[in-house]
Write a structure and sequence with these properties.
This protein has helices at about 30-35, 55-65, 95-110, 125, 130-140, 150-165, 170-180, 185-200, 210-220; strands spanning about 45-50, 70, 85, 115-120, 145. The protein is an alpha/beta fold. Helix 1 (about 30-35) packs parallel to helix 2 and helix 7 (about 170-180) runs parallel beside helix 9. The two termini are about 25 Å apart.
């Protein structure tokens, strides 16, 4: 008899964002190489494009630790020559104040020898920016893409999400997920979160059968 499920508490978990926690595969090796090529970036700027959950924030954190960079606050221009991160660039498309700030930030860093790393899910020309001068400048920024995950990377992403939640499912669970789950970075995050919640609710370890349930629920 299946035990009744209880509503689990949302417990905080630590996301590992160090260099040693980043798994390199053919899908993201070029992006990491670009991060490692700093400070020899063309024009002092780079744009990393990839789907949700692909590791863009992890790469940004690696670069912040290396370059002493900080996240743009979207209100105040940084000091001359600063190293700045602007994550999820496409979220600011269509926001007049944000677009104006990004335009002035771009010019400020160009004129003072600063550096900026942008991350985004789509290219600037596809994101819907309305300020022509900003679009023209963003189109000059060299871009590198993170591809959809291969088996090795997807397995590493799953392992990392489980480890962040202090979970260690057996190889049967991992094998099943790699064969049947949605093959995307976002899909990996979703399936691990669902499995964590289900295991907490049932007060049981994660099993292959539980993984099958979650995959079926997600797929509808």
């Amino acid at each position: 008899m299946t035990p009744p499920e209880q509503l689990p508490f949302e417990l905080p978990f630590r996301t590992a964002q160090g260099r040693g926690d980043f798994f390199v595969s053919p899908a993201n090796a070029a992006a990491l190489a670009c991060i490692d090529s700093w400070p020899n970036w063309p024009q002092g700027k780079y744009l990393c494009i990839g789907p949700k959950g692909s590791g863009k924030s992890h790469l940004a954190q690696i670069w912040q630790d290396t370059a002493g960079a900080f996240a743009a606050d979207m209100t105040t221009l940084p000091q001359d020559g600063a190293a700045v991160v602007v994550e999820d660039l496409d979220q600011y498309a269509g926001n007049p104040d944000a677009e104006a700030y990004l335009f002035h930030l771009f010019n400020h860093l160009t004129h003072t020898g600063g550096t900026v790393l942008f991350t985004a899910k789509t290219a600037p020309q596809q994101a819907g920016f309305q300020l022509p001068d900003l679009v023209s400048r963003l189109q000059t920024v060299p871009a590198i893409a993170i591809d959809h995950p291969d088996d090795a990377l997807l397995g590493a992403v799953l392992t990392k999400h489980f480890a962040d939640r202090q979970l260690t499912p057996g190889p049967q669970v991992m094998d099943y997920l790699l064969r049947h789950m949605e093959r995307s970075f976002a899909g990996a995050a979703t399936v691990v979160a669902r499995l964590d919640a289900k295991a907490l609710a049932r007060k049981r370890p994660i099993t292959r059968g539980m993984a099958a349930e979650v995959v079926a629920e997600i797929s509808g």
